[in-house]
Amino acid sequence: MSGKTKDVILHDHNKDGIDRRGFLKCMAWAGTGAFCVMQGGVLKSYSMSRLSEMNPADMKGELSFVQISDSHMGFNKAANPDVAATLQAAVDKINALSAQPEFLLHTGDISHLSKPEEFDGVEQILKSASAKDVFYVPGEHDVLNDDGKQYHERFAKGAQPGGWYSFEKKGVHFVGLVNVMNLKAGGLGTLGHDQLEWLEEDVKHLKSSTPIVVFAHIPLWTVYPDWGWGTEDSAQALAYLKKFGSVTVLNGHIHQTMQKIEGNVTFHTACSTAFPQPKPGEAPSPGPMKVPAEQLRGLLGITDVNYVRGQHALAVVDSTLG
Amino acid sequence: MASLIATGLMGLGGITSRHKSYAASAQEKPASAAEVKIDNFSFGPMAITVSVGTTVTWINRDDIPHTVVSTDKVFKSKVLDTDEKFSFTFTKPGEYPYFCSIHPKMTGKVVVQ
Questions:
Q1: How many other C-beta atoms can be found within 10 angstroms of the C-beta atom of residue A280?
Q2: Which residues, at least 6 apart from B8, have a Cβ–Cβ distance to it below 8 Å?
Q3: Which domains does chain A have, with CATH numbers?
Q4: ipTM of this predicted complex?
Q5: Homologous superfamily of domain range B2-16+31-112
Q6: Model pTM greater than 0.90?
Q7: C-alpha span between A132 and B61 (Å, rounded)
Q8: Residue B49 Cα, gap to closest chain A Cα (Å)
Q9: Closest Cβ opposite residue A113 in set B62, B79, B99
Q10: A184 and chain B: CB distance < 8 Å anywhere?
Q11: Chain A residues in contact with B65 (beta carbon < 8 A)
Q12: 3-class DSSP state for residue B71?
């Protein structure tokens, strides 16, 4: 699939630009991006190239936040010898948004090798963001050698012992999950029994009209199991969220944007701020894509999410650093 | 010349053998070494067979870090960045499946005879 491929709508029964049957696969590949509005579990998506035609008021809501991911501080090889500069570029991009986000979500792989100076570097750069609160979940690169001890001390102080947590912002319920611990040979990401039990309890008493945002590092849907791009027990987690009219799942890990809608659940993966990875199966391995320097920033990016109260809408906008 | 040929043959099996310069006693087996390369998110060779006493060294040739972790908790490396190595000496016969704990789809096996 080329980076310029447009989304294809197979069954547009309601003439509203969305496919209500099955999945609308809006493959917002790196470099194109998508603006999405979700209403009652149904998503409208627009190509980034059409954003200029849209009313800027539609992009404003009562709550907006930005997702960043996979900053891999410490990585210094092709195609990006300066991941600090691209993270800073991402922060600059966030600070230039017309609607300032209230907080940031970082969906993991903050560091490349779990080194203290790498975590320091990211925290330092994120201090220059206008949004002061950052909510993290760990990537597998953040829990190396110490079972996540450092990560927990720095980024998950108020969390459950396993690192997962939830919080409310303006009526939206956010859930940060950990699926990078205790990975088994041959397997995918794992949430584990304790976390699933906690999740069931955490959302049990919420009204079904509460918008839910779940964020975790490894995709909670099966993107490409051959490369480990999925989570073994995500179906159980999603079963606990079935009653909700609006569920948005935000992930990182695969260093490219991708979206899928399944019932009331919208899945979305974010770009990395560090280096791109190949599309599923289009390379011998998921190793970093080596791209010419002038193309790099077009393959990195941030995700801006906007919630409009009363519309049950979450607008998801990807933008590249280029 | 004979020893050169022997080494070459063993090399074909993915194992290189360096005999100690002194004569090995009856109890002491010659120390040998084998290497597994980590490249393109895979262990190569994926399965190797070595004799008891062999030290296996894994070297990460990828530009992404990996680990070498025994499924049965016999050995466990720290994270290996590019070109870093991890070695383990196998003193008991058996099968030792292992994987990369960061990318668990990466699996391998050492068979010790």
A1: 16
A2: none
A3: 34-40+63-320 (3.60.21.10)
A4: 0.77
A5: Cupredoxins -  blue copper proteins (2.60.40.420)
A6: no
A7: 39
A8: 20
A9: B79
A10: yes
A11: 112-113, 141, 144
A12: coil
